[in-house]
């Protein structure tokens, strides 16, 4: 299809003259000596004349910087002949600066079938594996997790030895064999690492602190980065927002895998491939980045950080404070202990503390941890948060995982009347708190972003009721988990009770009449609405004229809903619809298929008729030329 074709590798260090020469040689075959004596300008002019009016294809492989195209594009005439210039890069951001005519095609990991095809082609001349080696061969290709580099390395170990015994050994211990000769992969991975800007390198190397194959929850990872001091304020933005950008940057550079995605489409967990994990450990040792004391380890099959300190706490032994006086992170959330450990209040450099206890209520001396930024508590009993905690001005997140937890009335630092009342300016997360115990809190937490109530949220008159949130002008995420049983369907509250910037709302056990749902349509910035067990009562939801103008994600879970009547206009910007374990639901409304923005319908644990109706919507959309809607899930088989 093309008169001229050229493929040139750019890499990190390139010379403009070498690239021009490489492309010209591809076109002319046998280069003339005069080419090597030409200047950049002369080579560029010769290339331009060669391509003028012709149809050509040029591939620039492994671009790291958009400047290479800016330097060369003047030599590629665009005569509307159907010519194409193709770039490959490890960095997605490069595509944003080269003004490409098409959006970037992001290469995914290979499927099991594709990995097997690559493996066979790399090992066998004819690309076909003998029957006697197939079982071990498939085991080996599967362990490469779809990463072509790993498949190629594994193939290199096998192609010169086709004995069953050798293949069985490789299948049993692939990772150790692959890592035994770092020269096979280290240079390729080092290119990606060396191209990282300095602020991203510690964030990437920190993955070496986790065991191999460990999926790190994104929120936890961001909090750990902040606690380690890797993230710095940029332009007045919250550290969490800056860290989120760092995470996306590493993903765009193909350094992180994202095995789990939340229902709203955001990333839930991430991890790195075994080869990259080994690279992290080698590079961390080379740069003295992590010592053995400051890595996650296993105590009784439970993950903790640091390993030996977790073991001391599990055994009830006291902590040697001098040994850990510089410790920033103590994560023993996976190890069950009896009481909140008193010794930890002497680790004054702690930034991140996560514990699991039968009684997780912190002692009043928790305020000694003046540098603490994240406190995560998993407790078998309801937790009482001491008032002294509100003197901890660096606290950013108080995440209690379960129960109806009580906040003692705040006791703030003494300040002069001129300065006004003290506030926790960095405080952003407060979860699982009883609505009865925080009436005097919110005026002192103006930057709270995430709030979860757990307790009685229905008044004696049957109205949804919770503390005044008017001062929380930055609140984005709200969870309402009601524990008060009311005999009749309840009523919603006035929409004005919700902060204007609220983007995510979760309701559970609120027992509202479906007719009350119109109130949430008045929330101007609501993007995610999750209706969980007993949040609404009744078998029919008619959305009527309600218009959820900005709603992108709607989740219905464990509801008694049988019939759902709606129109495209009710959810004009809906992108993801998640229906889980709504056993009585007859069908997904066909009208939803007409929403142009809808990308995913997920039906899990519902009736076969609901499951089939979702696929009918997909088929109808495909017949009308819309192939972007994806439907997946599993019907209830019981």
Account of the protein in words:
- α6 crosses α7, α7 (131-143) packs parallel to α9 and α13 crosses α14.
- A 13-stranded parallel beta sheet has the order 9-10-11-13-15-16-17-18-20-23-25-26-27. It has a three-stranded parallel beta sheet with strand order 1-2-3, covered by helices on one side.
- The longest helix is centred in the C-terminal third of the chain and has 16 residues, at 608-623.
- Helices cover 26% and strands 20% of the residues.
- It contains 17 helices and 27 strands.
User: In one word, what is the shape?
Assistant: globular
Strand content of the residues, in percent?
15-25%
Q: Quick check: average pLDDT? A: 88
| Backbone CA Rg | 29 Å
Helicity level? 25-40%
Intertermini distance? 56 Å
- The count of strands amounts to 27
Low-pLDDT windows of residues: none
How would you sum up the major sheet?
13 strands, parallel
Which sequence of strands runs across the widest sheet?
Answer: 9-10-11-13-15-16-17-18-20-23-25-26-27
How do the helices and strands line up, and which of them pair or pack?
Blueprint: E1 4-9, H1 16-28, H2 33-37, H3 40-51, E2 56-63, H4 67-72, E3 84-89, H5 94-97, H6 112-123, H7 131-143, H8 148-158, H9 164-172, H10 174-179, H11 186-194, H12 201-205, E4 216-217, H13 218-228, H14 239-252, E5 257-261, E6 267-271, H15 274-286, E7 297-299, E8 302-304, H16 307-314, E9 329-339, E10 352-359, E11 374-379, E12 384-385, E13 397-400, E14 406-407, E15 429-433, E16 450-455, E17 477-482, E18 504-508, E19 512-513, E20 528-531, E21 536-537, E22 540-542, E23 553-557, E24 563-565, E25 576-580, E26 600-606, H17 608-623, E27 630-635
Parallel strand pairs: 1-2, 2-3, 9-10, 10-11, 11-13, 12-14, 13-15, 15-16, 16-17, 17-18, 18-20, 19-21, 20-23, 22-24, 23-25, 25-26, 26-27
Antiparallel strand pairs: 4-6, 5-6, 7-8
Helix pairs in contact: 1-3, 6-7, 6-8, 7-9, 13-14
